[in-house]
Amino acid sequence: MTADEDIQTWAEGYARENSWVLNPDKNTLDTVIRGLARNEQKFGERYCPCRLRSKDLEKDRAIICPCIYHHDEIEKDGNCHCQLYYRKDAAGPVMKERK
Predict the structure, then answer these.
(1) What are the sequence ranges of the domains in the chain?
(2) Which of 21, 32, 29, 27 shows the shortest CA–CA distance to 85?
(3) Which of 3, 46, 85, 86 lies in disulfide reach of 65, CB 3.0 to 4.6 Å?
(4) CA distances, 1 to each of 24, 26, 31, 62 (Å)
(5) Where do the H-state alpha helices sit in the chain?
(6) Is the four-CA dihedral 80, 51, 13, 58 of positive or negative sign?
(7) For residue 90, which of 80, 82, 49, 99 has the smallest C-alpha distance?
(8) Taking a C-beta distance cutoff of 8 angstroms, is the pair 77, 95 a contact?
(9) pTM value?
(10) Would you identify the CATH topology of the domain 3-98?
(11) What is the pLDDT of residues 41-87, one digit of tens each?
């Protein structure tokens, strides 16, 4: 299994546990997954690819996926800032077509 596949499998399970879905747009999803895999390989952690690291390990713990912000963002906006996780009702017509 590649790093990308491993992260996607993990993310799918985490989404399922929270009654969410992953981004229904495959290109965006693949970009976020690749970013997580790259950060894990380069820095040893799955830092959110949409957030800047401060290089302070203690501060940067907050942006390890799933970051500390994701629950509030998904509740408020329907998806997390990285657009990895979506509420099912906010995933749009692409999600409805996949069912």
Answers:
(1) 3-98
(2) 21
(3) 46
(4) 22, 19, 18, 27
(5) 3-17, 26-43, 57-60, 70-77, 92-98
(6) negative
(7) 80
(8) no
(9) 0.87
(10) Ferredoxin Thioredoxin Reductase (3.90.460)
(11) 999 999 999 999 999 999 999 999 999 999 999 999 999 999 999 99
